[in-house]
Amino acid sequence: MLYYREAVVVSVKNLSGIVSINRDGSWVCEGDHRHRSRQYPDPVAEAKKQASILEAYLEQRGVALPEGYFSYKVILPNPKFSSIYSSNFPPEVITFDQWTLLKPEQKSMLSGWIKGAFRGGKKEMQESIHQQLNFIFSTAPIWDRLEVKGNKYVLGEFLEFKGKQEDTQALRPIKRSKVSRLVIQKTSMFGLAPSRLQVLYCPRDYRSEGTSTSSEWKEVTVRSSTEVLFQPQDSNKIRKFKLSSILSMQLSA
Prior knowledge:
The chain is of the alpha+beta class. It has five helices and 16 strands.
């Protein structure tokens, strides 16, 4: 998140119960809603690693950031969170109790991080960095996203379509370089009738920030039994989703 003259990586952990820190930095949560002990990797180390990865990525994309531009925070917003020897927690950790004790201006600063506010500092330099970061973040690779029935979302990587040859042939033009979003317009109650896919064709060429692109919606009609092969994040198992169960799919850059 961007705020004043710095960028902050914010990690939010919804932990409840009594938490202590082991010598190796890992956290142990006792008496959470599952009523059992559970160990978590050091959230502060994870946030620090994410900040360093992001900083390295921006440097690779050609952004010259001021020294000390990146920092990181771990927010623990659950009021049912408590700790043993809280003084052992690193200063980057902000618990619910600490949040309630913060002065209004400090809360404003932290909420500014979370909301992505960006203002102040040397105006010309800040605007230049802001423009560069906005462009890079808008073209950075992210997870693909499936929206399925039941108000559920799956993040991961879209692989391909599977089904009848004429359907996969009709869907062949749907490529990551051309398509940003698919919306399933209509299926029958039992998923037997054809599905109308409304496809947003958005040509992508990120070699130049000034490149102009035009977008247009097109429709493709295929069988509802056509499947989407999708690799969920943090999983080695490929899942299959029928079009009849999908509301929309968004493809990353």
